[in-house]
Amino acid sequence: MTTTIDVKDAARRVLEVIFPADDEEALVAALTPDFVNHEAPPGTPPGPGGAIFSMHVLARAFSDQRWSIHRVIAEDDTAVVYCTHSGRHTGPFFDLPATGREFAYEQMHIIRIVEGKGAEHWAVRDDATLMRQLIGPAEDSAPT
Question: Could you give the C-alpha distances from 28 to 92, 101, 122, in angstroms and in order?
Fold first, then answer.
């Protein structure tokens, strides 16, 4: 039986450990084979492949990545994670060349856990703040 603590721990681990390490093997082990990312861009591979694609895109674009977890709330098989994603833009991010700027923006993730593994994911990210920090005037960059 999965407990609320197990659900919280599984959700936190992906953001605090696996994504910053760009650890494909650990991500595959943390997700169900039929994992669904409801926020995946069109053309993203289905299943864990889509999460792997996203993790690698972020790892190529951003160094010193960190997801600072502010709050995790769990009920039954689902966790909600409120966090801040931060780092430095040191590689291409889709069509945007590296700017060298630091960034920090808020995110909320909802993750349904089945037998200790992520089965479904939804997210709300403040992408406008991220992009403003990456391409806006220098005074809009995240503080150092």
Answer: 25, 31, 18
Using an 8 Å Cβ cutoff, are 92 and 135 in contact? no
Domains (range + CATH), the chain: 4-140 (3.10.450.50)
Report the largest interatomic distance among the alpha carbons of the chain, rounded to a whole angstrom: 51
> Which tens digits make up the pLDDT trace of 23-60?
999 999 999 999 999 998 888 899 999 999 999 999 99
As a three-state string, the secondary structure of the chain is CCCHHHHHHHHHHHHHHHHHHCCHHHHHHHEEEEEEECCCCCCCCCCHHHHHHHHHHHHHHEEEEEEEEEEEEEECCEEEEEEEEEEEECCCECCECCCCCEEEEEEEEEEEEECCEEEEEEEEECHHHHHHHHHCCHHHCCCC
